[in-house]
Amino acid sequence: SILALTPILAHTGHETTAAALTWTLYALAKASHVQRKLRASLHELAASEPSPPHTLAHLPSAEPSPDFYPRILTLPYLDACVRESLRLHAPVTSTMRVAAPADAIPLAAPLRDRTGALRTHVAVAAGDIITVPLQAMHRARSVWGEDAREFRPERWMGEEEEKEGGRGAQGLWGGIMTFGSGNVVNGNRSCIGYRFALNEYVLVSSSVE
Question: Do the beta carbons of residue 168 and residue 143 sit within 8 Å?
Answer without folding.
Answer: yes
